[in-house]
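INFO  loader      accepted 1 record
INFO  loader      residues=565
INFO  predictor   begin
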Amino acid sequence: MPFKHEIAKAVSQVLDTPLEQILPLIETPPDPALGDYALPCFAFAKTLRKAPQLIAKSIVESAMPACVVKAEVAGGYANFTVDKALYARTVLDQALLEGERYGAQDIGHGRTVCIDYSSINIAKQFHIGHLSSTAIGHALYNLYNFMGYKSVGINHLGDWGTQFGKLLAAYELWGDEAAVREKGVEEMTRLYVKFHEEAEKDPTLEDLGRAWFKRIEDGDKTALALFDQFKQATIREVMKIYDLLGIAFDSYNGEAFYNDKMQPVVDELRAKHLLTLSEGAYVVDLSEDNMPPCIILKSDGTTLYATRDLAAAFYRKKTYDFAKCLYVVAYQQNLHFRQWFKVVEKMGYDWAEDLEHVAFGMVSLADGTTLSTRKGHVVLLKDVLHSAIARAGEILEEKSPHLEDKQTVAEQVGVGAVVFGVLYNARIKDIAFSYDRALSFDGETAPYLQYTGARCCSVLRKADPAWQEAEPDDAALSGPFATAVVRALEGWKDAVAAALEKNEPYLLSRALIELAQAYNRFYYEERIITENSAQTAARLQLTTAVRTVLKTGLGLLGIASPERM
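INFO  predictor   done
INFO  writer      dumping C-alpha cells
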C-alpha cells in the first residue's frame, strides 16, 4: 500500500474520520526538511472542536505505520518523515511492475467519450489557430484511453455555410482549374481573399455568393461537384499535417452531415413548447438562466450553428451512447455552448450534464502576428512545423553530428516542441509561441524531456546487462537527490488522475518536467553505474522507471520519445 494511504488510514482511526476525507488533504511539503508528507489539520477544527495544533499533536503521538520514522507538529500541520529506502522500494516496485501502464486506472470501465476537436474548415488553410484544439484534443483522446475509456475522436469539418458560396462565386469569376489542382488550398484561399476585396468595392458580389450557396443547398450537380472537388483537395492537404502530428480521427462527419438531422430536433422543440417566435426568428428563451435566447431558426427559416450542434449531439448520443462528450473549442464560444447545453437540459435529457466545453486561449507567434483568413493574414501550421523541424535539425547537427537517422529525430523534436508549447500551460491561457523557447534543450520544453529520456536510454545501454540479476541495495536510493526522483515518480500518478478530472493536459507536462529535473540533478550528483553491483542495480531500476514514465507521458501528449539524441 502507498505510504500516503497508510498514513491516511492511521489518521482516519485516530480522528474517527472516513479515509476518503483525509486522503485528498495529505500533501507534499515544499521543503523536504518539513518531512515527506503533511496533513493540514484546520479542516477538522470545527467538527472536532479542537485547535488545529492540538489535533496535529494527537495524531503524531498516536501509533503510526512502520514506514513512518518521524512524526512532528509544525503549526497546524502534522508532518511525517518516512523510511527513504523503503519508500523508494515501494514506489519502484509498483512502477516497474506496471511499466507503461504506471499511473493508469480503469476509471472509464470501457465507457465511451466523444471528443470533438481540431475541426478544420474546408477550403481554408490549416493555420496556427487550429493548433490548440488539435493538440489539446489529441492529448485528451490519449488520456481517456489510458484511463479506461473508449475515446472517439471527431473532426467536425466546417463544410457548410455561405462562405462556400462565395468561394464558388470567386472561382466562377477568377478561378483556374489547373491552379486549384496544382496549389490546392493555397489557391482557394487566394480566391476567397480576392472575393472579399472585390466585394468591398462591389456589394452585389455578396448576392452572387448567396446564390451559389443556394445552389449547393438545392443539390445543384455542378455546384456540388465543384464543392466536393475543393473538399477533397482540402482533406488531402490537412492529412499531411495530421500524419506529421501522428493524429487520426474516428469520424470526419462535418456540418453538412447533419443537414437532414436538424428538422427532427426542431420538431421536438416545437412539440415540447420550447420554441418562441421573436422578431421573426424561432428561439429558446433562456432568460431564466441569465442568457440571451438560443436562436434555432432565423427569420428566413435557415438554421444556425446551435441547431446543427444540437443535431450532432443527438446523433452522437444515439450512435455512441457516450458517457461524456467534450468540445475542444476556443473560449470565445463559451456562451454558444452554455446556451445549447441548456437547451438539451430543457428538452428533458439528463445526459446534458455529460456535455462539456473544454475551452482554451489563443495561440499567436511571439512577434505579434495576427490571424485573418479574409485578409490573408495566416500563419500556416505546416510552415510552423517545418520551420521547427529545420531548426531542430540544425541543433542536432551541432550537438550530435554522428546521430543516426537524424531527420527522423529532427521531426520528432521539432513537432514535439510545437505541441508541447501549447500543452505546457493551462489551456485557458493565451500563448505566444517562440521557436527559440520551444526548442531549448535546457528549458521546460519537449526537447528537454526527450533529451532526458534519451539520457536514461544511454545510461542503460552502457550498463552491464548482468545488473538485472543483482539484488538492489535500496539504501542507494535514500539520499535527497534519489528521494526527489522517487517523489516525482509517485506524483506522476496523481498528475494523471488530476489531468483527467480537470481535462488539463498541462498537469501531465508539469509532472514530466518535475521528474526530468529531479532525475538530471540525481544524474549529476550521484554515480549511477558504480563498482558496487547492488548499488548500481537500485539506481538503474530508478533510471528504468524514469525512462518509462517519460516515454508514456510524452506519448499521452502526442509527442515521440527518441532513444538517441
